[in-house]
Design a protein that fits this description.
With about 200 residues, the chain is of the alpha/beta class. About 40% of the residues lie in helices and about 20% in strands. The protein has one domain: TIM Barrel, CATH 3.20.20.70.
């Protein structure tokens, strides 16, 4: 059985140096690292990519949120697009080599993302999470509905603990995405291995 993907997303609560140091230590168990810092300038995105590369992380494992320009300049694997980003079809037309992810929250959004040419989607949040306070999780039942109609890989995100991984994969997800669950753990290396072992 093909190994499922493990995506690690920067939290915004750490310095680039701290994020990159953890990434260096856990890279063997991680499929992709996402730089998601919403307040970063283009130069800060670029500098963080360079820090990751200095830590031995391949450009093919790095994904940038929204910043198509920096992704093209640095040669990273791809971009994760949000509702405020450029349309996936525009990015795909001009930069066919970029792997494009879209964040979706419904079947309608999934259909739109697929029609636009997204290579994969993030779906969540699955469980209650501190990053979305007061909002109930969409749950594994909704995840299964998405995976059954999706023509592209679906990566589950949001409040995922190691104990959740089996039911997420059983629901058809192609992998999971984590933020604080690993990056803010007391022992990120031990924690990422716990997740990876269940994938």
């Amino acid at each position: 059985m093909k190994q499922k993907e493990l995506h690690i997303i920067s939290t915004g609560n750490q310095t680039p140096q701290a994020f990159c140091e953890i990434a260096r230590l856990i890279q063997n168990d991680v499929s992709y690292f996402h730089i998601r810092e919403k307040s970063f300038t283009a130069k800060e995105f670029y500098d963080t990519v360079m820090l990751l590369v200095e830590g031995g992380i391949s450009l093919s494992k790095i994904i940038l949120n929204d910043r198509v320009d920096v992704a093209c300049v640095t040669g990273v694997s791809g971009v994760q697009l949000a509702y405020h980003s450029l349309k996936a079809s525009l990015v795909k037309k001009s930069f066919p080599n970029l792997r494009i992810g879209s964040s979706v929250h419904s079947v309608e959004e999934l259909t739109s993302a697929q029609n636009e040419g997204a290579d994969y989607v993030f779906f969540g949040h699955i469980y209650p999470t501190t990053s979305k306070p007061g909002l109930p999780g969409r749950g594994v039942k909704e995840l299964r509905i998405i995976t059954e109609v999706s023509k592209v890989p679906v990566i589950a995100i949001g409040g995922i603990n190691p104990s959740h991984v089996k039911e997420i994969i059983d629901a058809g997800a192609s992998g999971i995405a984590l933020m604080s669950g690993v990056l803010e753990a007391n022992n990120p290396v031990k924690m990422v291995k716990e997740y990876a072992s269940k994938l």
